[in-house]
Amino acid sequence: MTPTPTTEVAMAAAEEEEEETEELKELLVTLPKEKGWRTPFIYKFQGFWSQPKEIQSILSFQKHFKTSESDVVLATIPKSGTTWLKALAFAIINRKRYSNTQNHPLLTSNPHDLVPFIEYEIYANNQVPDLSDFAQPRIFATHIPYHALEESMKKSDTTKIVYLCRNPFDTFISSWLFLKKLRPESLPQFSFEEAFKMYCDGFIGCGPFWEHMLGYYNESLKRPQHVLFLKYEDMKEDIVSNLRVLGGFLGFPFSLEEEREGVIEDIANLCSFDKLKELEVNKSGKAAMAFLNNSNFENNYLFRKGQVGDWVNHFNPSMVNKLSQLMEDKFQGSGLSFKLH
């Protein structure tokens, strides 16, 4: 007998439940839930939507993590240029250690293997690691909303948080096409229209997207020395100026001599979409990210187009109107706006 969509979801949920701790199971039954993109369900936890494994990791992170004064945290909502930001920050911070030649780690390692995710790697699978051996400055990445970060990380005057934000139109398209590849065969597929509705309703990992973006944006206005807010579209338009700002914020400013020697351009080229996409490690390798837990995943899934405005090839007029109105409503009065092309 062929399983029905309902039984498939039940089977997938049962498999997922086997990996949950008793504490997490007790918590999940108290939380609102909706259909998930990669898992049977996502749950509203601490005000945002998350998958069970992520919730477990975030709880451990909030309980055990202690910030170091030189920590760097790279924050994004999924599919907003995370891989690019990891590469750029790693290259800037380590530029004295590595030259942009054949021995650079970015030529042989995926950026996700060089800058670990807090919730998907460091605290994944019930790990409570000793982070004292991490090279200083420690560089971490996260999709966790600002309000849910560990308290010492938020209170620190020296921890540097960099948030990269992408326009919600392109973010949705990138999320939809990426998560389609990761959705297990045991779960029934859902349509582009259904996914769009879920996105607009806020039912996406770490969403709603507008709350995630505004959380970091508002903090960057209050404490600009603590949170740097960058826009994907601005970086695509003028990477050199943005890398100059990023280097200064991180405490690794580019000297006049470095600028004259073209060091900023070298880093921009090393970390460019086209360069990273063509590296063998990113064409056929697999990143060691615990959250993927998917033998079919390839690094090339992380490199699709990297363009601004690709959404015009996917949206119909009613979708454009709906998302435009939603953004107008949610971002009204905040000062946050986006270039769509």
Automatic annotation (TrEMBL):
Pfam families listed in its UniProt record: Sulfotransfer_1
First-level EC class: transferase
Gene3D superfamilies registered for this protein in UniProt: P-loop containing nucleotide triphosphate hydrolases
Keywords for this protein: Coiled coil, Transferase
Stretches assigned to coiled coil: 7-34
Any GO MF annotation of the entry: sulfotransferase activity
Domain Sulfotransferase, first and last residues per copy: 70-335
EC number: 2.8.2.-
Entry similarity comment: Belongs to the sulfotransferase 1 family.
PANTHER family per UniProt: SULFOTRANSFERASE SULT (PTHR11783)
Protein name: Sulfotransferase
